[in-house]
Amino acid sequence: MSNTNYPNEEIQLYFRASSVTFHFHRLFFLSLLINFNMATTVLEAPRYTQLNVRVYQHNGSLLAALEVPIDPRDRYVFAEMLYRYCSSIFIFPDEDKWAIFKLRANTTPGATLRPSGRSLVNPGNYMVLEKNRNPTTVDLTTNCAPRRVRTLDTHTQSQGQSERDPLQATFRNTLRQRDNCCVITGQTRATTYERPFLGGYRQYIIDTRPDSDIGESRLYSAQNELLLSADIHAQYDEFQLGIDPDSGYKIIVFGADPAKMGRTRLRSSAQNGTDGVCPELLRWHLRMCLYKSLKANVEPQKIWEEDLGENPMGSTLEQSDAAERMEVELFTRLGSFVA
Question: DSSP character for 41?
């Protein structure tokens, strides 16, 4: 009886072994196929090649890009900061399940970029996936930085208003007493620029001085102002550099930084005490920098002409974005009087 069962048992063992071998080969080829598909993912190029940190979606579309210094000694953007900055421009189905992975040379995900600790972000390609490495859908916010109108001689104009307006005079004197120099570079030359933020953050200003000193809207509070040199003011106004109050008031430069301002910090005079600049205003400004400079391949904003000719109203209304420019022009010209 036992002799007749041996062939059946051998046949059963053979088919079991064949089944295991088949499933093994199937899994092996599936893994090869997955790796092949990922390895052949075409990564979208940034608009500017100097942006050497590039964050991609699983399909190869570029989500975010920024420039960090080539010299490792000059780098100052930590992983925690990159996660926080990406959170400002990314929209996820589930905010708590994503992570950033370093991409290998064959575009497959490697090690996780951990937001904790003191790891610096190095140049390279990265990919946003779920924490379990599954693909996730990422949308970019439609928010964008506000557009600016460049005036021909803002410094002279500001000084002239200060001489005529007691609020402006008090504002300028308070600012210079607090900072005495550019709060980013430390320059003490006379080309400093004093002007309050023209933002809607009145609820964050806790200055208790009377309206006669800071205005009913608190626009001229020391908490709503920075003293900047003329060249730094231009970069700040164009959202080319920001200040991160959640990283020790570190200066963040979006682009080339030959002066190595990045990783330096806002002067302590502007941070401390009841007259220190409001952190929420700095967070708002930094967020505008991220909208303009971190979002991938954002269309550059058209520069508005300063000289509108003999008929500025007519020239403005002829433009395709007339409504937006009219709003910005009015706010730029009249905002300081709403105090």
Answer: P
Joined tokens for residue 161: 């208003």
Question: For the chain, how long is the longest CA-to-CA vector?
Answer: 117
Do the bridges between strand 53-56 and strand 62-66 make them parallel or antiparallel, or are there none, so unpaired?
antiparallel
pLDDT greater than 60 at residue 27: no
- Transcribe 207-233 into DSSP letters: --S-HHHH-TT-TT-GGGEEEEEHHHH
Strands (E), the chain: 53-56, 62-66, 90-91, 98-103, 109-113, 124-130, 139-140, 192-196, 225-229, 241-244, 250-253
How is residue 164 written in tokens?
């005529």
Q: How far apart are CA 115 and CA 300, in angstroms?
A: 30
C-alpha closest to that of 131 among 99, 160, 173? 99
Written as six digits, the tokens of 18 are 């064949």
SS3 string, 68-110, reads CCCCHHHCCCEHHHHHHHHHHHEECCCCCCEEEEEECCCCCEE
Token pair 């400093």 is found at 192
Question: What is the C-alpha end-to-end distance of the chain, expressed in Å?
Answer: 105
Alpha-carbon torsion (207, 212, 214, 215), positive or negative: positive
Contact present, 97 and 136 (Cβ < 8 Å): yes
Alpha carbon separation from 128 to 36, 138, 139 (Å, rounded): 19, 8, 11
Residue that has been written with the tokens 């502007």 in this structure:
270
For residue 172, pLDDT beyond 60: yes
The answer to whether residues 102 and 124 touch, using CB atoms and an 8 Å cutoff, is: yes
One-letter identity of residue 138: V
- What are the residue ranges spanned by the domains of the chain? 53-140, 160-298+321-335
Specify the residue for token string 């000719």: 309
- pLDDT tens sequence across 66-77: 999 999 999 999
pTM for the predicted model, two decimal places: 0.76
Rg (CA), the chain: 28
Which contacts (CB < 8 Å, 24+ apart) does range 45-49 have?
Answer: 46/296, 46/297, 47/297
The percent of residues in the chain predicted with pLDDT above 90, rounded, is 43
